[in-house]
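PT: before anyone asks, these are the final sequences, not the draft ones from last week. 652 residues across everything. Please model them as a single complex and drop the result in this thread when it's through.
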Amino acid sequence: MMSRLAGLRAGDPLRARLFMLLALWLVAIVVMSLLSPYFLRASTVPYLLQYVPILGLLGLGQTLVILGGGPGIDLSVGSIVSLVGVAVGGLFVLGVDIWLASALGLMLGALLGFVNGVLVNVLRIPSLMATLATMFAFGGLALATTLGSPIGGLPAEFGWLGQGRTLGLPNAFLFVLLPVAVILHVMITRTTIGRHIVACGNDDRAAHLSGLPVVRIRVGLYVLSGVLAALGSIIAMSWFLAARPDAGKGMELLAVTIAVLGGTHIFGGTGGVPGTIIAILIVTTLQIGLQLANISAAWQLGLIGVLLIVSVSRLSLWRRVKGARA
Amino acid sequence: MASVADTRPALRFVSPTASRELALIAAIILVCTVFTVASPYFLSVNNLVQTMRAGLELSIVSAGMTLVIIMGGIDVSVGGIVAVSAIVIGKAYQAGLPVYVVTPLGLMAGTALGAFNGFVTTKLKVPPIIATLGSMYIFSAIMFLVIGGAWISGLPGTLSPLVNGWLGFLPASALVIAVVYAIAWVLLRKLPYGNHLYAIGCSEPSARLVGINVDRTKILTYAFLGLLAGLAALLYVARMRNVEINIGTTIALEAIAATILGGTSIRGGVGSLLGTLLGVVFIRIMQNGLVLMGISSLWETVIIGSLLICVLTADALRNRNNPRAQ
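LR: through. Structure below.
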């Protein structure tokens, strides 16, 4: 069913998807500049890029988890953002240096991702259900330990990451998202481990029979997703100089939307970083544009919902036409 | 359930769902004992009836959720359906329509939204989790757009006897729950439709080959869940006499949790309504007892989440030698 001429053909649907996404982005930009006179200005670009990194990191993590197949999904990323934030904030209150606390936060993210990975891949609980449960548990823990109140008073120099700019571009974008995206893209397209991930997503049985450690690879992807979520959390904290216990609320859905819109097939095996990046730009453009045009945030929600459904249904229709399904 | 036990000797005194039900009953008794010792208010008729009234909407929605999950689907948008139906009901009351017009209107709104979910999953071939995530966005967008930040308040409580009334010594809300579960039980156990649900949940391709109209059955089931969500909205309005912005935010996740706790397999094909009802009772008693013991209600989500993880893990360990459940 998933048989493809290795590598050669696999690029094609992705490239078509990429062009479609670029066109969609252009449409979004045109519509938004018609809606608001403030949108099409040079000052919008850094403003837009300010919003991109947090969501971008979550979207990339989600892309990898879904790409690895299974079917895999990580609904707990939003809660990981909240919990890591609360933990880092708590450590800071206890007197730990904020940068050291951030490093520990990354490790906590890895640990939470590892929990997800074990639940899904070792215990074989369906990913949707397992990460829904951990979403409850992690998110609830973040709220309950702080009684719902944010931890503020982070030092101003910590704001370098989230507020600072270099060459007019936000530091979080330049020094975090961009390198991460490039590294992940190279990893998926140019390294053996990337090919292994795609192989697991295409047909885990075949991957297993050819000797790939399918379970280990997929657990690794969940860990990576947890680390990226923790990174997103640190950026958010550095931006607001506070750790909100509900910082990641709703982000998991946006992350899934972005990954799927970016052309990652929901059952794995197809997808990549460029599509996800453009999808992030589209979603952020819509958000910023509607904000600037002073249109109710509700339209954003609805639009994202429609995008999510349409992006998945288009893909399956396309696959059926192509006879990709047996 | 027989299908899952096929790989091992049929030497069981009770079927696995029945064993789950017995375990839940034991857990409920245990929890009740602890709370009775801990708080003098717990074991009073007043408190228990209040708890049941508070669990009315959840138990109604969970009945529909059980059918959907047995079918191998899921619906995370049910909170949105409750919200939109409640808004339809609220607006209709405000427009001065009498209760015998408002009631079918609310039910129809819920049914239509449920059928929309069914349509997206079957005809557009979007996986149910993605489809309902998308429609959840759309429904909450509708909600925000219609009521903005304001509440719809001062609604007539014409239907409130259904919630608060007494029929002799029997609370009317218990009667409502009994009727809903009886109808769902007849659908699931006494009609061919129920067998079709189990068949689709076990293996959709096989169900198609046998000649079951899978698409129609699915749409009907999602519509039935929508109908129950509409009923829940009616009762919510009757109980609260207003429509607020955060209506239905947790009900989908709670309903899924109750269903899974009750022994319904997230992979579909296995499940019972009695288990779900016990799951609802367990969740609500936990919540009530924790409040009485003075533990912040913020811990609820942590507990539900951890409980879900434990149950899923236990299921996974029990089925680890069973190839069908892989």
